[in-house]
Amino acid sequence: MTRYFLFAPALMLAACQSVSVPEAPTRADLASELVRRAPEDGPPPKPDGACWANDTAPAVIETVTEQVEVSPAVIGPDGTVITPATYRSSTHQRILTDRESVWFRTPCPDELTVDFIATVQRALKARGFYMLPLTGQMDAATGDAIRRFQQPLGMDSAVLSLAAARALGIVAADFGRD
């Protein structure tokens, strides 16, 4: 009984403490997997035995529409507007990021079996990115679905990245990665 009285204050004090629970990431960030290198430089040297794909990230262009004053308002001596100002719309584009060559890890060719690709198609279909029957072929429809899955996660490519395969749950995580 005396033990209860010894632990009771400690338990009550512990109950008053707030516990901070780390938040799980809400979505994968595939852009962190991109390595910017010229295609002629070849893939990055590490990790050993990794397979890499090269693709071109498209330029990001912003279209801006502004109202430009053509003629100012004419104001009378008593402060009333005699003629209002006139404006025209001016639209122009500017490049936010240039087109660039990027490298990223991808499943190795010997892993890209008919069963593996069918699993990719199944995972994309479950998420609403692939609507056709499963074929096990890396065709244009599969590439389009891969691009639609990867694009909002920061990788605009029709080539399946290893990080996207992990995010789909079809490749085991690589905890020993360099």
TrEMBL record:
Residue span(s) of domain Peptidoglycan binding-like: 117-154
**Which UniProt keywords are given for this protein, alphabetically ordered?**
Signal
Task: Give the range the annotation lists for the signal sequence.
Answer: 1-20
Could you identify this protein by its name? Peptidoglycan-binding protein
What is the organism of origin for this protein? Fertoeibacter niger
